[in-house]
Design a protein that fits this description.
Distance between the termini: 8 Å
CATH topology of the largest domain: Rna Polymerase Sigma Factor, Chain: A
Structural class: mainly alpha
Strand content: under 5%
Number of helices: 9
C-alpha cells in the first residue's frame, strides 16, 4: 500500500475521534445537571457535588490521559491525580470557559509534571549508577503498519504526541496549546509538524 493510503486513513481516524468527542459533548448536554451550581457547591466543600462533577467528566479526562501516555494503568493514575488537583484548585476556576476546558488544561499540566518527575528520578538513578530501565510508555516500533490511531500515536515522542492530540483530536488552537503546555508557539508548531512527519514515516 502506498504512503497516501495510510495517511488518509489515519486522518480519517482522527476526524472520527473528534466527531465522537463532539457527539459526546452534545449528548452530555441532555438532562445534564447544572455544572455551575455543582461547581459552586463543590467550592464550598460539598464532596457530593464534586463527585457528580467527577462522574460527568471522568471518561473524557481518562481518554485524554490515555492518548497522552498510551498506558491504561498510568492513565488511570493520572486521571485520579488530575481530579485530586481539581478538587484542590477548584477555587481558581473563574467560569470564563467550560469546566471541561479547564479540566483539560489542568490534566495536561498533571501529565507534564509526571513526565518531568520521571525524568528527574531517571537522572538520579543514573547518577547513582543504576539503570532506570525503559519505563517510558512510548514505543518506537517503526515496523508497525497498523492504522489504529492509538497505536500510531504511541510511536510519537511525548511532546509531539501531546501537541498532536490536543490539536488534531481535541481541537485546540495552537495558541491555546502554547498556553496550556507553557511552551512557545513556535515550539508547538514545530512539534505538530514533527508529529505529522513521524506518523507519515511510521505508516509508510
Amino acid at each position: 500500500m502506498g504512503a497516501q493510503g495510510p495517511r488518509t486513513q489515519i486522518m480519517e481516524t482522527v476526524m472520527q475521534a473528534r466527531a465522537e468527542r463532539m457527539h459526546e459533548e452534545r449528548h452530555d448536554g441532555f438532562n445534564a445537571p447544572d455544572v455551575s451550581l455543582l461547581v459552586h457547591r463543590a467550592r464550598n466543600g460539598d464532596r457530593a457535588a464534586f463527585e457528580q462533577l467527577y462522574r460527568l467528566h471522568v471518561s473524557r479526562v481518562y481518554a485524554l490521559c490515555l492518548r497522552l501516555c498510551d498506558d491504561r494503568d498510568e492513565a488511570a493514575t493520572l486521571t485520579q491525580d488530575a481530579f485530586v488537583r481539581a478538587w484542590q484548585h477548584l477555587g481558581s476556576y473563574r467560569g470564563d470557559s467550560q469546566l471541561l476546558t479547564w479540566l483539560h488544561r489542568l490534566t495536561v499540566n498533571v501529565v507534564l509534571d509526571h513526565r518531568r518527575a520521571w525524568r528527574r528520578r531517571a537522572l538520579l538513578e543514573i547518577a547513582d549508577g543504576e539503570d532506570p530501565g525503559d519505563r517510558s510508555s512510548v514505543h518506537y516500533d517503526r515496523t508497525s503498519t497498523r492504522l489504529d490511531l492509538e497505536k500510531a500515536l504511541a510511536t510519537l515522542p511525548p511532546g509531539a504526541r501531546t501537541v498532536f492530540v490536543l490539536h488534531e483530536v481535541e481541537g485546540y488552537r495552537q495558541t491555546e496549546i502554547a498556553l496550556m503546555t507553557g511552551v512557545a508557539l513556535g515550539t508547538v508548531k514545530s512539534q505538530l509538524h514533527r508529529a505529522r512527519a513521524l506518523l507519515r514515516e511510521v505508516l509508510r
